[in-house]
Here is the input.
Amino acid sequence: RSADAIAREERKRRAVEKAKRLEFARLADERSVRLKLEQREREDAEQRRLDAVWKGMLDEQERKREEGLKRIFEQQTVRQEAYGKSAGAEMAERAMRDEMNMLRWQTTYAQQRE
Here is the structure.
């Protein structure tokens, strides 16, 4: 074998090794990128889960607040109705008393005129 043939084979071997190293580096980069993407996807999924938990908690708080406000409104309505009924009864009683007093006064006045 000549020195040129040996040199060509050596260059060819080095080129093949370099191509293998480059391919290995490319694959390592792809794997690294893939692992980073997978990690990001896991983190995103965890964040979505936490967001859903927080949303559930906030929705529950809002529901309880609305129920409390509804209960307060209903209690206030009942109180107002009770007050209205009692106030209406008082007004009716007062009107009846006034009417009875007027009748008494009229009868007394009529008797005095006779």
